Amino acid sequence: MKNFIKYTFLSLLLLSAVGCNTFEPLDENLAGDDRLTSDPAMAEGLLLDAYGSMSNQVLFNDSATDDAVTNYLSGFRRMATGEWNAQNPFSSRWSQYEQVLYVNKFLSIIDEVVWKRDEETNTLFKQRMYGEAIAMRALRHFWILQEHAGMGTSGELLGIPYITEFLDFDGDFNLPRLGFEETVDRINEDFNEALTYLPMDWDGDLSNQPTQYNGTDDDRYQFVFGKNQDGRISGRIIKAFQAKLNLLAASPAFMNGSGDYYQKAANTLADLLNDNGGITGLDPTGYYDFYDFAIGTRNFPEVLWRDNVTPSYTWLEKQHYPPSLNGEGKLNPSQNLVDAFPMLDGLPFSETHPNYDANSPFENRDPRLKKYVLYNGNDLNNRIIKTGAGGGNDEIDKVQFRSTRSGYYLKKLLDPKVTISSDGSVSASEKMNVFLRYTDLYLMLAESANELGGPDNMVGGMSARTIIEAIRQRAGIGLDSGDSYLAGISTKEDMRALIRNERRLELCFEGHRLFDLRRWNMLDDIPDIMGSKYDGTNYNEFVVEPRLYQENANYAPIPQSELVKFDALEQNAGW
To answer: What's the sign of the alpha-carbon dihedral 420, 423, 427, 431?
Structure first.
């Protein structure tokens, strides 16, 4: 990390932090910190850099799990097939310390910058951005912790170094990892401090302003904390990530239910979701519309935090459409995932189910299967895709690096209205990158409530059973005959399995599965990836790719390059 930081932050100090000198010459007497403190826009650029390179759902790490494979040699494919080690830390988030240091540099100069000429407005701007910076520092540490926390070689459950100061290029970067619980506490402390400065929402609502702003001029408050700030981190977003942090801490790979982390997560989630309308606030349309909204529409009830809507995401169709539609077919869902979708009446998928038809195995199934997975005979905007006999280039392994390896293509996240011409040009499509959505939070509350007291334990008027019932009904399960499978669940263990499966289905291809498997202590125990090939008469399953994770897989390695430079760092066991 030190060499990287030396390069980045020495350049930052000498070349004004955000590299604007690349496009315009520096004023003769305004280099380094002087430039930052004299130019509010330059100074705020440090804070805005903390919003860059956000963890999101279009990284497609699913090919490192049991949900998918990929048809090219990606880092996640190598990770899943035995090449993952400290020298090749394919999923590492250690580089997110870059954003931590941007934040700390911003905090070191915030008091020296004149943000607005009016003194009261200047103070409000400073307080708001201080809250944002503290929150983003906590968030970046959470993401690093989620990836790199684990059992150290000493046998102690470890967290990560927590950096709260800007370290100059010649500073001491040889920092030890904190204990796991201490790291969680430090993140929560930053989140809690940020909550005292930031409103729950960027709406300028005077009735919901943090108490320290009581007595502030109404017009000034609404100017600083109004809708123009929408998209930045807010109190509601902070609370959602605090719940994620506490659920991570409570999970089997970490505290395994000890302490009060499940209760903390449940309480926070209940407050957030009751503010969203409780069970009735669950968006009735289901999976958020990544693409299916009218141009100009910007209101998405399912989405809590997102990036800007943009036409730049048509690379998704180019990468993941099947070859017959001029795509590259990169991500291929697994038979393992397909089998996780239940029958239409809610019972787990089974070839012995009375409504199972071997000739049409995708009929009488959970409707989400048709929406999320492009299987043999499914369609994209009435364009039928055949992955078996007669499918041409869409058949399994027909065209190297383009055809499916499993018998399935991705459908979720893709705009079926998009067309790709043979010359590679792509029709228009507006999309958004989503960081948080409410269904994830409802499933987190179901998990926490069940672990605390079983299927019918109520937290804030909601239980695991009522939440899962609402999600499955929304999906179209059991609408005609009722959901007898859910009704028959009586134990915490059975409800746990169902909640985990619902997370797998609802959140598939959104970047959650890899980290869920790891916090549940399950990544080292997933099976080989299966596929299915239609020969014109029958569907025949086959092994596509092994999963070669060892016992240490639930705790990712600290990159070996960091251990070589910093002897205070302790590696996770087994790496």
So the answer is: positive
Q: What is the DSSP letter of 314?
A: G
Q: Give CA–CA dist 278/281, Å, rounded.
A: 5
CB 328 within 8 A of CB 402: yes
Report pLDDT digits (tens) over 486-515: 999 999 999 999 999 999 999 999 999 999
- Residue 29's Cβ-count burial label (10 Å; 0-12, 13-18, 19+) is exposed
Q: What's the pLDDT tens digit per position in 38-75? A: 899 999 999 999 998 888 778 899 999 999 999 999 99
Q: What are the CA-CA distances from residue 403 to residues 242, 387, 409, 508, 546 (Å)?
A: 41, 9, 9, 21, 19
Based on the number of CB atoms within 10 Å of its own CB, is 398 exposed (0-12), middle (13-18) or buried (19 or more)?
Answer: middle
Q: Is residue 159 part of a domain?
A: yes
User: Which residues, other chains included, contact 253 with Cβ-Cβ below 8 Å and sequence gap of 6+?
Assistant: 150, 518, 519, 520, 521, 554, 555
Q: Are residues 508 and 61 in contact, defined by beta-carbon separation less than 8 angstroms?
A: no
Residue 362 burial (CB count, 10 A): 16
Residue 203 lies inside a defined structural domain of this protein: no
**Which range marks the domain in which residue 150 is found?**
1-55+97-198
How many of the other CB atoms lie within 10 Å of CB of 257? 13
DSSP 262: H
What pLDDT sits at residue 430?
87
Is 509 a domain residue?
Answer: no
112 domain-assigned:
yes
Distances (CA, A) of 95 to 4, 128, 219: 9, 26, 40
We report the CATH number of the domain holding residue 13 as 1.25.40
- Mean pLDDT confidence for 255-276: 97
In angstroms, rounded to a whole number, what is the distance separating the alpha carbons of residues 187 and 173? 19
Count how many domains the chain has.
1
Helical segments of 207-346, H only: 218-225, 235-250, 261-275, 315-320, 335-340
Give the C-alpha distances (Å, rounded to integers) separating 158 from 103, 149, 212, 465: 24, 6, 36, 34
Query: Residue 281 corresponds to which tokens in the numbers above?
Result: 């606030």
pLDDT tens string 338-348: 999 999 999 99
Q: Can you tell me the distance from the alpha carbon of 56 to that of 51, in angstroms, rounded to the nearest whole number?
A: 12
Cα 147 to chain centroid distance, Å, stands at 12
